[in-house]
Amino acid sequence: MDLAFTPEQDAFRHELRTWLQEHIPAEPLPPMDTPEGFELHREWEKKLYEGRWSVVNWPEQYGGRDCSLVEWLIFEEEYYLSGAPGRVNNNGISLLAPTLFGWGAEEQKDRFLPKMASGEEIWAQGWSEPNAGSDLASLTTKAVRDGDTFVLNGQKTWCSRGAWADWIFCIVRTDPEAQRHKGLSYLLVPADAPGLHRRPVERLDGEPAFAELFFEDCRVHESNLLGGEGDGWNVAMATTSSERGLNLRAPGRFMAAAERLGELYRNLGPSADPGLRDEVVQAWMNAQAYRWQTYWTASRIAAGGELGPESSLMKVFWSELDLELHATALRLLGERGELVRGAPDAVDDGAWMGGYLFALSGPIYAGTNEIQRNIIGERVLGLPRK
Amino acid sequence: MQFAFTEDQRLFQETVREILTNECPPGAVRDSWTNDTGRVPGLWRLLADTGVVGLTAPEEAGGLGMSEIDLVLLLEEFGRAAAPEPLLEHTAVGIPLLRDHGHGALAVELLPQAAAGDVVLAVGLASQRFVLGGAQADVLLLQHGDELHAVPRAAVTCTPQTAVDQSRRLVSVEWTPSPDTLLVGGVEGRQAAEDAFDRGALAAAAQCVGVAQQLLDLTVAYVAEREQFGRPVGVHQAVKHHLADVAIAVEFARPMVYVAAWSAATAAPHVRREVSTAKALASDCVDLAARAALQCHGAIGYTIEYDLQLWLKRGWALASSWGDAAWHRRRVAEELGLPA
Fold first, then answer.
1. Chain A residues within an 8 Å CB radius of B1
2. Which residues of chain B are within 8 Å of residue A277 when distances are taken between CB atoms?
3. Can you give the three-state secondary structure of chain A, one letter per residue?
4. Whole-model pTM over 0.90
5. ipTM of the shown complex
């Protein structure tokens, strides 16, 4: 056991820190979940790509640096500590890319990965439907083969940044006769496909960052099928395990938030409620625990282990940690807690309320925490299903 | 960055687990509640012969010259078995204290005897109200201001304080410091006491994790078997979610305990902060595990006859000794510069 970083890892951290200091926009960008912020964040992705920092854990041929898991974790720590802009293509990079690496044909990887890395093509996830949320396998959007083309009909919803994204990775039903999980396929849909109509939906924070997608005889070429026809569930589950585990939300962002929470406490001075100091400490300790559990897991995977249903433990932990961090900040802020971006007296320009609103979605997306606890009970602990 | 144990360390853990499974089953722990010593007859000798007792002593004193990293997995096993042997006081705290700070003839004489397990150590720091196993130990390592003393049992007066876990033979100790018993004093004495406290807190945290894991395993097995309404109670989400929360708490407390062990072994800069983070998480973890375990067992868990109570009570004791969660959170707050 050696928890010290190697000189190479320290050098990597230093190089990144220096680059970020030199390149981070002087003024914070508007939120990426607004139309103007979305495009500015795309430009930032391009800048990251030019510095070869956008996808450090990818192979070099697609714009990455072939980094190890540990280096990727270092990247995430430094990135979020620096206060750099949010990653507008995170769903593509974290959720779709691992699936492309696992299931994609060579020409698909060559076609999609470099443009994802540069931000030229930004991806959204089209999985949920009005009647298929936690019960994803009940989805009904149909894709019927017509020669070398699929014809899509149906509706997707809660598609984050779906109104502005360039591509959408979807799960659709290609065999209506097959039962539930069978008969699904994983399809990459260009946002400008004929017959695809998009309608923005305002989220809890008021930004039009959700979209509803309506497919009306929408035609998509078969070369956009990822994995085999009917393999969609297996392909998609490969995505969710990275979504829940090592890829979607690395510890770096929570460690940075915990540092900022400590700073907020110091700036505001001791609260009238002495219990709040305990809450600040608890949130900080939980961020540390998440950090080390992740390095622990990364070492296990580097030694040939796999991340199975244990990823559900991580998903519950980070989503509840995020909520705890922001709820504590709002309690510290008292009356100013409810102020949002632009309010003259807002502390940190309302970022804590913004973060709180975002954190509230954590226990819901990527499989609700109730579903995760079922998975932990049944697949980690081996409790009976019936 | 290599956050994993070696094969040898894992092998040592398995060896100790096997010894405890065979020699320290629940029946033996139960007997320790009522016998003279509060311990399992013969077990200490076996552990000494395996090298466990003297693990932290230097090789020249007859020990294995190993560190907290090697010890932490064994402490976890002691928690899992609810073993009532003084591995924490003797091996995790006492021997390192003699090793690092005992310059005089007294320490030089004691260290090999402790490493061999012939002399059993107990520990009473100024921050602790009671001494565990004080009346059964041969030598008590006691703090007096900035001084640490090694006091023969015959020179102290012990008043037993009955604990809810009756294998925990707590005593309050009256004694008078003398130059003959002095190990170390002054600035170094204070440092020695602080180091000793951190080692104790780390060891207690490791045992908490072991107890919590055992409570979880016992309860998972029970709810998978126990039937009501014609099916196992473990099929219900209310039960699954209790146990999922325990699994999460154990999963995130455990690596933090290992981090603290590494920091202690390598004298890393933030050792204090990491030990306190580990102990706070581990204390809360075992408290949660105990609550969930009892609730999911129902009335059978609420009896003396059923073995669950052995771990419930050990868990409560370990959670609150060597600084409870609130105490350690306060210390982390100080380390982070958060004013009260």
1. 2-6, 9, 70, 295, 299
2. 333, 338, 340
3. CECCCCHHHHHHHHHHHHHHHHHCCCCCCCCCCCHHHHHHHHHHHHHHHHCCCCCCCCCHHHCCCCCCHHHHHHHHHHHHHCCCCCCCCHHHHHHHHHHHHHHCCHHHHHHHHHHHHHCCCCEEEECCECCECCCHHHCCCEEEEECCEEEEEEEECCCCCCCCCCEEEEEEECCCCCCCCCCEEEEEEECCCCCEEEEEECCCCCCCCEEEEEEEEEEEEHHHEECCCCEHHHHHHHHHHHHHCCCCCCHHHHHHHHHHHHHHHHHHCCCCCCHHHHHHHHHHHHHHHHHHHHHHHHHHHHCCCCCCCCHHHHHHHHHHHHHHHHHHHHHHHHHHHHCCCCCCCCHHHHHHHHHHHHHHHCCCCCCCHHHHHHHHHHHHCCCCCC
4. yes
5. 0.97
